[in-house]
Write a structure and sequence with these properties.
This protein is an all-beta fold. It has 3 domains: about 15-205, Sandwich (Immunoglobulin-like); about 210-310, Immunoglobulins (Immunoglobulin-like, Sandwich), CATH 2.60.40.10; about 315-450, no CATH class. It has 2 helices and 31 strands. Strands 20, 21, 22, 23, 24, 27 and 28 form a 7-stranded antiparallel β-sheet that branches. It starts with 12 loop residues before the first helix and ends with a strand.
């Protein structure tokens, strides 16, 4: 296997007197034609001068996961993930190609796009490549995507996942197949100390049913109900056909995810999760207030609904239908979660499906929610944040009808508010009503805090 960027390592003159050793390193990514797709090398990365292990004979695997599952919508981009796993090795690489099943040696299926610094796209015309013999027939429209030196260097045991986008052809071309070859090695750049793996995933055209947003289906994140959303806060959108599949962001605040995008008052929102029935967004910054349009676009079709956009839209995040999302800080390391640093507040026991503990007098508790108003400093939407930006308006708390003054209220992460308080004595036991008010607007009336 020839390589446009191979690394030749030679032994000392003494060793050369015995034998000459040439070790080719493919940490920069292979040439076109090594995915085992029709026309490519049928053994994938197993090739002369490349990797020597027979495909799929090692203890690991290569897997392809598409945001659309086993379907695609013509022209609608979706995220693809390739995971190379092998706990006996330390470095991982891959190559993938998308083919139209009716003519897989000649017709590439759509467009592959790198979305980070860990992958690169090549084709038969990429300068200095040496494709596998027969993998680049005349008139082909083929592409390959693969790891680059950054992705290779970043990879570490026991597995590496590479993410990128694939945009299918703009028209229905029938079934298409994604072919991937993965290799796992020691990192010593020695071709004999590697394992190679092959996988494929066939995708069929999906139904192009238009998306719909459910009645009352635009809510503050994990709130169950509310009357308004706040710019910069997290929002859940519920409906049908909102996405062609399921996709999750990489913490990069994309305005399109899995082929779905959302506009709030004609401004692009930031998506963290999409599925056919739910989309999670961070609303964009906006000075407008009142009723605004929210438009979801998926598969070239759109759905539009309205929501009340307000400067204040306080809402507690919930663990279930009523229990507030909150934690008890454990400075003594006795907590169940976070290496002993905290417990999750809830009825003591496992009634919520995991261990929770009711708070008691003297406990320091953090409550979580969205929409508690402006902060100083301002935390812009669409950007990562970690810190403590206090709200400019005081947040008033009531627990079991008693006023409780928090010692902090503000943003601690992008779009996420927390309210810190010390539980006073005399509030009762069991699930007690919890209400917060800021800017004259109150949180949900049915929220409870578990006390003991």
């Amino acid at each position: 296997m020839s390589k446009r960027r191979n690394l030749l390592i030679k032994s000392s003159p003494f060793i050369l007197a015995i034998a000459s050793i040439a070790i080719f390193a493919y940490e920069y990514g292979p040439d076109p034609g090594y995915t085992a797709a029709p026309g490519d090398n049928p053994t994938g990365c197993m090739a002369s001068g490349c990797h020597t292990d027979a495909p799929n004979s090692g203890p690991g695997s290569v897997k392809i996961v598409a945001a659309g599952g086993t379907t695609y919508v013509p022209g609608q981009a979706q995220q693809i993930q390739v995971t190379v796993a092998d706990s006996t090795e330390r470095k991982y690489g891959f190559e993938l190609s998308a083919r139209v099943d009716s003519s897989p040696k000649l017709m590439g299926a759509g467009t592959l796009t790198s979305t980070d610094g860990n992958t690169q796209v090549i084709d038969c015309k990429t300068p200095a490549v040496v494709p596998f013999a027969g993998s680049c027939p005349s008139g082909n429209t083929l592409q390959w995507i693969e790891h680059n030196i950054t992705g290779y260097t970043r990879s570490a045991a026991p597995a590496a996942t590479y993410s990128f986008n694939w945009t299918p052809p703009s028209t229905n071309v029938g079934t298409v197949t994604l072919y991937a070859a993965g290799n796992a090695g020691s990192g010593a750049l020695i071709v004999s100390l590697t394992h190679t793996y092959l996988a494929s995933l066939q995708l069929s055209p999906a139904s192009t049913t238009s998306p719909t947003i459910g009645s009352g289906g635009i809510l503050p994140h994990d709130s169950k109900t509310a009357t308004a959303i706040q710019p910069g806060s997290w929002v859940d959108i519920y409906g049908t056909n909102l996405a062609g599949g399921t996709a999750t962001w990489n913490g990069d605040f994309p305005t399109s995810l899995g082929g779905t995008s959302v506009m709030v008052n004609n401004k692009p929102a930031y998506l963290s999760y999409v599925s056919p029935t739910q989309v999670n967004i961070q609303a964009p910054d906006d000075t407008a207030t009142g009723i605004v349009n929210v438009t979801v676009t998926s598969g070239g079709a759109t759905a539009t609904s309205t929501v009340n956009l307000a400067s204040f839209g306080p809402s507690f995040s919930l663990l279930d239908a009523t229990h507030v999302a909150a934690i008890i800080l454990r400075s003594d390391g006795s907590g169940t979660y976070g290496g002993g640093s905290y417990d999750i507040v809830g009825p003591t026991g496992t009634s919520l499906g995991y261990k929770t503990v009711a708070a008691k007098a003297g406990d320091v508790v953090e409550l979580f929610g969205v929409g508690f108003g402006p902060t100083n400093p301002t935390v812009p939407a669409g950007h990562a944040y970690s810190g403590a930006a206090p709200t400019t308006n005081a947040v008033q708390l009531q627990i079991h009808g008693a006023s409780v003054t928090p010692f902090f209220s503000g943003i601690s992460g992008a779009g996420l508010y927390q309210i810190n308080l010390t539980i006073p004595a005399g509030l009762g036991t069991g699930d007690q009503p919890l209400l917060a008010t800021v800017g004259g607007v109150s949180t949900q009336s049915f929220v409870v805090l578990s006390l003991q």
